[in-house]
Design goal:
Layout lengths: L3 E6 L5 H10 L3 E7 L3 H11 L3 E3 L2 H7 L4 E4 L6 H10 L4 E4 L6 H14 L3 E4 L6 H12 L5 E9 L18 H17 L2 E9 L10 E8 L4 E7 L13 E6 L2 E6 L3 E6 L2 E6 L13 H20 L7 H20 L3 E2 L5
Parallel strand pairs: 1-2, 1-4, 2-3, 4-5, 5-6, 7-10
Antiparallel strand pairs: 7-11, 8-9, 8-15, 9-10, 11-12, 12-13, 13-14
The chain binds nicotinamide-adenine-dinucleotide and (3R,4R)-3,4-dihydroxy-4-(hydroxymethyl)oxolan-2-one (89Y).
Length: 343
């Protein structure tokens, strides 16, 4: 599809990655940007040469003719901005976490569906090339039917210096990072029927939980453990690697630190390096995430061209978001939560 005109709302810390990726995608140009902070607007506008700049999203929708809008603000503004896009009949991408509550998320999906507007949640971790490599091994049938998974993200990386708001919210790791790891668990093992969780706060300087351990039953029969921590100090810092163990009826997959993939299956054992490429604008250790930003944005463009529903559409993301809500509920009650009851 030639000549898509997009706009970005929210020109903060992470949006710079999105702007780099848009610049590299053929047939797309970001024609307008919006941020209520004039300094962020100036910085991003100057860096990427975007002249049309707005401090008010409604004014931007009124003045611009857009093929899509990319919402990269923090969660508090997502519902209003997605609903504004729907009212203006503009296809919309929204950053994770999609909404503050599952109720808001459902309303946002409905607003876009009622308006006939495509909606994709920027749930990019499943687009990381190491994660795609694991999915490809599963699809090959090499390890048979998976019956167990451990999807793990444990780090001591200082995420608070770049994203200070992460230290202040009542909710932290499940809503911010666990959401990605839960989505990867769904991507690899299918939808979840029930879940139980334990949460902890180790870092006294933050308001929310920084450790979560979640046990899940998948509808297809597998059991998984999703474990996340930002309180784990290791000899070699793994941020932002997701480590994976999958056991199947005919073999195993191990995605270990350093992007080392070991597959033991029907045709023996094979070890490979599935390191993500370092895109020209990317920097370590974020390059893994940065590459997935480019991949998901390309997917969005492909979906707009073909009319296909994005893999992480709003409707799909409700099933990931329900796991976030369920993990908080289960962590508080120490009781299992049935997922279907939330959806
Ligand atoms: P940030 O605070 O640095 O940037 C957000 C920007 O949005 C700010 O400049 C703010 O002024 C602007 N803004 C807020 N409300 C607005 C509104 N109504 N209209 C216009 N501008 C508005 O935040 P960030 O760290 O860039 O995070 C943004 C989002 O990206 C968050 O939801 C975060 O969870 C997500 N994120 C995703 C990933 C990922 O890998 N997918 C990684 C980091 C952050
Ligand atoms: O906000 C988070 C995300 O989505 O990926 C990593 C992160 O930046 C910090 O946890």
């Amino acid at each position: 599809m030639a000549g898509l005109s997009g706009a970005l709302i929210g020109c903060g810390f992470f949006a710079v990655n999105q702007m780099h990726a848009w610049r590299d995608i053929e047939g797309v140009s970001i024609v307008a940007i919006c941020d209520r902070d004039p300094e962020r607007l100036r910085l991003v506008g100057d860096q990427f040469g975007v002249a049309r700049r707005y401090t008010d999203a409604a004014a931007m929708f009124a003045a611009e003719k857009l093929d899509f809008v990319d919402v990269a603000t923090t969660v508090g503004s997502h519902r209003a901005l997605v609903e504004m896009a729907a009212e203006n009949r503009v296809p919309v991408i929204c950053q994770k976490p999609f909404a503050p509550t599952l109720g808001d998320a459902k309303a946002m999906v409905k607003a876009c569906a009622d308006a006939g507007v495509p909606l994709m949640v920027h749930e990019n971790f499943r687009w990381q090339s190491p994660i795609q490599a694991v999915r490809a091994v599963l699809d090959s049938g090499e390890i048979g039917t998976p019956f167990f998974g451990r999807i793990s993200f444990r780090s001591g990386y200082d995420v608070f210096s770049g994203q200070p708001y992460l230290a202040t919210g009542k909710r932290f790791i499940i809503e911010d990072l666990g959401i990605h790891i839960l989505d990867i668990a769904r991507f690899l093992l299918g939808d979840v029927s029930s879940l139980t969780a334990r949460t902890k706060r180790i870092n006294p300087a933050i308001a929310g939980e920084d450790v979560a351990t979640i046990l899940m039953d998948h509808a297809g029969g597998a059991t998984s453990v999703v474990d996340c921590s930002y309180a784990t100090k290791l000899a070699v810092e793994p941020f932002p690697e997701t480590l994976i163990e999958l056991d199947g009826s005919d073999g195993t997959i191990r995605l270990a630190q350093g992007y080392r993939l070991t597959v033991t299956g029907k045709s023996g054992t094979k070890v490979s390096d599935v390191s993500p490429p370092l895109l020209p604008w990317a920097s370590r250790p974020w390059h893994n995430i940065q590459e997935s930003v480019a991949a998901i944005q390309q997917h969005w463009v492909d979906c707009l061209a073909s009319g296909q529903e994005p893999a992480t559409s709003g409707a799909d993301n409700l099933k990931t978001f329900a796991l976030v809500e369920a993990a908080y509920a289960a962590g508080a009650s120490r009781e299992p939560v049935q997922i279907d009851a939330l959806l």
